[in-house]
Amino acid sequence: MKSLAENKIEVAQCSGFCFGVKRAMRIAKEALDKNKDAGVYSLGPIIHNNQVVEELTKEGLKPASLDDIKKGVVVISSHGAAPKVFSQIKAKGLRVVDATCPYVMSTQKTVEALSKDGYFIVIFGDRRHPEVESLMGFSGGTAAVVKDEKELGTIEFPHKKIGIVSQTTQLPANYIKVISAVMEKGFSEIRIFNTICSDTQKRQESAAALAKDSDVIVIIGGKMSANTKRLFEICSNICKGTYHIETADELKKAWFKGAGRIGIASGASTPDWVIEEVKNKILMIKEEGMGNG
Fold first, then answer.
1. pTM (predicted TM-score)
2. Which of 59, 123, 219, 231 has its CA 20 to 30 A from that of 147?
């Protein structure tokens, strides 16, 4: 263990907003600027970060259910939405602004094409996550969602043509386990797509590398954020001192007692200013600790 005098705080190379989140934020703010008097809504949080959602709400973007929206503009979140949701929005005479992440959109198109070509689709992901719900909508009812390879044992495949996709924020190693389990089933044809986004993989690799060289690693991101949960899972398997927080207020002095090297990694929806707040708070805790010594 390194001494406090040798303490170092390092932020993972791949941190802050990902491309898809930056794009969703830009689209949402453009919608607010152009439709100030019309009313601008999002169906649930536009990204999974409470601090960002609160800031956008102050600017006029109101999270709401479709039933409660009578007029105005509806922004589709970065996680996407099922085709029926778009139809329902248009049927109400509302305008749609689509902020779906391009990686998610690509997976949606893949699922839709597989369904039209007669494939039974296995979706690896979190069943209740909005991204996965949107993928189910594009499958036309020809898909099953599994959270791990064990769940495949409960699924009856209606035919032998199988397509496999993953939620964009899943762990590649876990996806491989699901693929291997599917291939043990009887099939005549199988199509496998790597739909885990490149930013997710780089972020996971960056966090893992940092965890290997840290006494404590703090993962910053929304508690509902799938990609942040994956980072916590990866790092906690490497570094015992791994903690998941949303804001600097959640930091505890006891976590850093005797710690030398401290790492910080963030989910794809965590803004730079939150990362900076956390880093500054850790620096303050360290200085207080050295002062007490």
1. 0.88
2. 219
